[in-house]
Structure to design on (95 residues):
């Protein structure tokens, strides 16, 4: 996962993040709601194709086993990016 302030990225880095993202969400003025700005993949079953998504639905996409590349842009000029190659740690019980 990559996160930070948009102002710290060059224009080329901003463009690259947008180009490699399967889904791009932009925070709306309503707290907890995000607008789908760009989509490059078919959404998994159970995730409706809509215009506005809740924080919970985006969480479902971030944790989905299909591992999408997702870029989220916030109103306060921050970003969060998760690559499709992210490895989610597995639980191992310690004896």
């Amino acid at each position: 996962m990559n996160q930070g302030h948009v102002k710290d990225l060059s224009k080329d880095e901003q463009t690259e993040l947008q180009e490699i993202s399967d889904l791009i969400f932009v925070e709306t003025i309503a707290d907890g709601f995000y607008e789908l700005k760009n989509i490059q993949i078919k959404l998994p079953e159970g995730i409706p194709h809509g215009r506005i998504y809740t924080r919970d639905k985006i969480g479902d996409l971030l944790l989905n086993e299909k591992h999408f590349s997702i870029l989220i842009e916030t109103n306060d000029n921050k970003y969060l990016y998760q690559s499709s190659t992210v490895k989610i740690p597995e639980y191992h019980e310690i004896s």
Remarks:
- Strands lie at 2-5, 23-27, 33-39, 52-54, 70-73, 78-82.
- The first helix runs from residue 11 to 20.
